[in-house]
Amino acid sequence: MDEAELIALAGPRPALPPAGRLRGKVCLVTGATSGIGRATALRMAGEGARAVVLGGRRQALGEAVAAEIAALSAEPLFLAGDVTREADAAALVAATLGRFGRLDCAFNNAGFQERRAPVAAQSDATYAQVFDANVRSLCHALRHQVPALLAGGGGAMVVNTSVSGLRNPNPGLALYAASKAAAIALMRAAAMENAPQGLRINAVAPGRVVTEMMLASGIADMRQVAAGLPLRRMGHPEEVAAAVCWLLSAEASFVVGHVLCTDGGFLAG
């Protein structure tokens, strides 16, 4: 199945008009060059963000997203880097503060999913790659983004996890599921530590969303997967992006340590 066929399984993109939820905010997105990260960066700009800082490993794609951000009247800043390396995670925050003087919102989206295989067949190298991308990078984010957010009076952070971290629906992806469960636990602990200082930390847990990762997941029959969801379709990255921006906004001012399942009803079924 190619990308166009996968997107068709999500049906028409719903109308999701922005409402100025992030007006004037300085926002940061990791894993911003494609999929949910790109959609969220664009949604932030559409919601009135003053600036959107983009982190990602692919220079050309990052520059293309930055150009789209600029076209939406927000100021973009793209930094190529790998947030599994602490120096790169720190540099992303330092560049944000150096250019804009503050950080108001952060979406930690960077992640990796292994090739499907029984857990006993997965190597140490694969384990390291999955947990570095999904857990270590989050530790780096918390270490460097939290002080910057608190310095501005609190703000908000959202972590991209997965329904797999709540219930593993994918035989052969045990490392991914375990790493996302760890990310949820980290998010909740950080949320409780920082809520008294006015910093809200939450998570989204996407289900079957049309992204590069889903295309590479090794699922044999995507049509059967889509038909098995309560909505009878897969999700668009833009639908997850809208949920992220709501969690980052003042409209979610009493939501802390929550995992918002953007999954088309998968976990309810």
Automatic annotation (TrEMBL):
Database matches in InterPro entries: KR_dom, NAD(P)-bd_dom_sf, Sc_DH/Rdtase_CS, SDR_fam
Domain of life assignment: Bacteria
Family recorded in the similarity comment: Belongs to the short-chain dehydrogenases/reductases (SDR) family.
Organism this protein belongs to: Siccirubricoccus soli
Protein name: SDR family oxidoreductase
Domain Ketoreductase: 25-222
Keyword Oxidoreductase listed: yes
Record PROSITE patterns: ADH_SHORT (PS00061)
